[in-house]
Amino acid sequence: MKRVLITGGNGFIGFHLIRRLQNEGCDIRCLVRTNSVTDQITMFDVELCYGELTDSGSLIKAVKDCDTIFHLAGRVRARKKQEFDETNHFGTKNLVNAASQLSVPPIFIYVSSLAAIGPSNREQPKYETDIPRPISAYGKSKLGGEKAVTAVSDRLPCSIIRPGIVFGEADRMNLELFRTINRLNICPIPGLGDKIYSWIHADDLTELLITVAKSGERITPESPLGTGIYFAADNDGIYLSKVGREIGLALGKQQIRNIHCLPLTIFTISTFYEILKQFAKTNSPYDWAKAWESLHHWRCSPEKSQQQLGFSPLVPFSERIAQTAHWYREHNWL
Description:
With 334 residues, the chain is α/β, with parallel strands linked by helices. It folds into two domains: 3-170 and 198-234 and 299-314, NAD(P)-binding Rossmann-like Domain (Rossmann fold); 175-194 and 238-294, no CATH class. The protein contains eleven helices and 13 strands. The chain has helices at residues 12-23, 56-63, 81-100, 137-151, 175-184, 202-215, 240-250, 263-279, 288-294, 303-309, 317-330, and strands at residues 3-7, 27-32, 46-50, 68-71, 107-111, 158-163, 165-167, 186-190, 196-197, 199-201, 229-232, 238-239, 257-261. A seven-stranded parallel beta sheet has the order 3-2-1-4-5-6-11, sandwiched between helices. Strand 4, helix 3 and strand 5 (107-111) form a beta-alpha-beta unit. The longest helix is centred in the first third of the chain and has 20 residues, at 81-100. It is globular, with a radius of gyration of 19 Å.
């Protein structure tokens, strides 16, 4: 990897990936919107290329002379299904079309989501060979992005990564869980039973992304289901109550109470945000779709990446939680 393009480089995962690639001596170009906040990445030696996934002209300029593309950019909040599709499905389609037109096509790594394959059950994690059954507009749009990648895989070497819940330094998505445990000594759990999720620290995800780019399996249109796809997870699932205890220990809390949120309560709260989303024209962090997803288990098996690529987390999960908590405190986020 000599010249790398990263979309979504100004995001949380992008920050970790840029830091890692710079240590490898890569020339890094980041596709960012003109109104993006780039303070977090301008500390690095990166080239900013302004453009949009919806603007094919800007993408042709962005992919020029690149030998590797990490496509991290995506919409996680939207007021309408069309907004998800515009970015996650059709935006990805525009990007792979631009990349596939290069005389020497780059390696293309698409960061998808567990939402694209759908929830698991308590006993059985998802495998790459399972048939995708997304349950949200977001998940369906990410699956649309995967299909766009597969459609050009006869002329563009592509791989897909589906991460579990990604956490780590500079992460805002899981910050509220850390704050709740820090302030109230409680761990909120959706529904009546405990929930089991697959997690991965951003640095471990970064290592897997680079490994797949260098030596991973590629998708082809005729490949069996799951070829060229990797789940990214620390292990095949951790109960949320245990995650809460680990966060509590990292924050110096000796005892954390689990508070179960009834489905009726969850949907009542999400209804408020749905109304706010429609009338205030805001992208709500917690709508009906998020409420429905929160009531499921989200487990995936890391077996393929372990056996095929020799991938394993660099640091134990409990230490990653402590590392994240320390960063939050050091930067006054808690």
